[in-house]
Amino acid sequence: MPETDLDIPRIWVEFTDPANSEQRFRCDLTWLTSSWTCIFGAGCQGIYADRPDDGCCTLGAHFTDKDDLERVREIADELGEDEWQHRPGAPGFRPDGTLRTGAWTEKEDGVRKTRTVDGACIFLNRPGFPAGSGCALHQHAVLTGRPPHTTKPDVCWQLPIRRSYRTVKLPDGSSYLETTITEYDRRGWGPGGHDLDWYCSGNSEAHIGREPVFRSNKDELIELMGEDGYAALVVRCEAHLTAVKGAQTVRSRKMLPLLVHPATLAADGPRKAAAKKAAAKRAVARKSAHPPHATNTEPC
After folding, report:
1. How many domains does the chain have?
2. Is the peptide bond before 160 cis (omega within 30 degrees of 0)?
3. Using one digit for the tens of pLDDT, what is the confidence trace for 162-215?
4. Comparing C-alpha atoms, which of 225, 65, 233, 27 is closest to residue 154?
5. Contact of 34 with 208, CB cutoff 8 Å
6. Fewer C-beta within 10 Å: the chain N or C terminus?
7. Do 276 and 232 have their domain in common?
8. Torsions phi, psi of 256, nearest 5?
9. Which of 128, 158, 188 is the last residue of a domain?
């Protein structure tokens, strides 16, 4: 299915951070109430057509700062050979058993990132690996009962949510920090984002989640906004969903393109048709298993 246009109608909401009066959140309700979900290994075509099994892991991950790097290093030190297909050999470790920085990272345009091995991120386990394909850091989080966002590079666990900042100056000379929470679309990758062969956030194939983004990505949003900020966001997202539900009546249906992410709208048709077909099959199965009692028309 084709991706939606980048410049789509969006509903935004702004509110002061309950935990910091000098910060205001600007949140994209269109994205946060969409039905996007990660479909890695379940229909994801990868950002490059010749590497469909990589998902968005082909290029490796740039670290946001030293804390990001050190946090991932600590997790990488825990990974065994049975978890990490491309775990560096003995020369990649210091005498104390910790990984050498150069063994699993590299610099690109002066910025440190995860090293790429055989055309993809060093942490990406390929199909056929006994532990399963996918990010070794993510799999380790699941195995050890940790939230995945605590084990992966910032750019990986945030994608495709984008957080950005700007200082807003008011006419009276005062100012505040504006924190925007929105969709990490192709443009988030820089000029090269337009050259990606496939990308999930605007593609209806990935808008099949059972819960909207603000619920399914609760842990990530709390990390980005704080507990109080997220709680305030939930109130506004729920109100928006109520408005969407009200617009689904025949008389108000023309409002839906203004309220719902177009990829979610595109996915809704086939999804509802499939649900209706499945319900019909279940009804037939129930009738076959429990046939109605025949009426006795013979004379007593």
Report:
1. 2
2. yes
3. 999 999 999 999 999 999 999 999 999 999 999 999 999 999 999 999 999 999
4. 65
5. no
6. C
7. yes
8. -55, -40
9. 158
173: left (phi over 0), alpha (psi -120 to 50) or beta: left
Collect contacts of 168-171 with beta carbons under 8 A, ≥24 apart. Answer: 168/24
In angstroms, rounded to a whole number, what is the distance separating the alpha carbons of residues 285 and 203? 34
Contact residues for 84 (Cβ-Cβ < 8 A; gap 6+): 76, 123, 125, 136
Q: What is the pLDDT of residues 220-256, one digit of tens each?
A: 999 999 999 999 999 999 999 999 998 888 677 787 8
270 phi/psi in degrees, rounded to 5: -60, -35
For the question of whether the overall pTM of this predicted structure is more than 0.90, the answer is no
Do 32 and 63 lie in one domain? The reply is no
Tell me the torsion sign for CA atoms 229, 233, 234, 239: positive
Q: Residue 106: inside a domain, yes or no? A: yes
* Domain interval for residue 280: 20-45+167-286
- For residue 62, the 8-state DSSP code is B
The first and second tokens of residue 58, run together, are 């082909």
